[in-house]
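Quick one, tokens below. Sequence please?
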């Protein structure tokens, strides 16, 4: 398991005249979700105590912000279609969607409301007024 957010290289398991099979994640998970994100929306703005997840961009892109939980330095990555970003536990993360975006999110924990809320610490760090400031400092 990684200690910081990390772009993950997807693994082409098989490719032939019929097409290809790409492995997104090769570990035990409890939830796989498809999430749609409207243009200029913000999601996340939290960290997880124990959960981790992979985000695979099906369509669109992400301005991805992350930091250790003391928030002394906000880091930034631009995540494009067909890329995977891993988010570990105890790392703040927030997402801004500059265009309509669809994601597959693959998580360690189940995603029912009770389990999710118990493991999630919400912070109000990234918003539509300040996100560009964090892109420009990188």
């Amino acid at each position: 398991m990684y200690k910081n957010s990390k772009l993950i290289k997807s693994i082409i398991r098989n490719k032939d005249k019929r097409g290809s099979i790409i492995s997104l994640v090769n570990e035990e998970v409890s939830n796989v979700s498809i999430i749609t994100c409207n243009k200029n929306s913000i999601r996340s703005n939290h960290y997880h105590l124990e959960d981790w997840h992979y985000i695979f961009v099906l369509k669109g892109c992400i301005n991805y912000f992350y930091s250790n939980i003391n928030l002394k330095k906000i880091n930034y990555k631009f995540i494009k279609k067909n890329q995977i970003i891993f988010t570990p536990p105890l790392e703040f993360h927030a997402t801004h969607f500059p265009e309509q975006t669809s994601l597959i999110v693959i998580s360690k924990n189940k995603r029912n409301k009770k389990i999710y809320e118990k493991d999630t610490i919400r912070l109000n760090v990234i918003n539509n007024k300040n996100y560009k400031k964090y892109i420009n400092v990188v």
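The chain has a mean pLDDT of 93. DSSP finds two helices and twelve strands in the chain.
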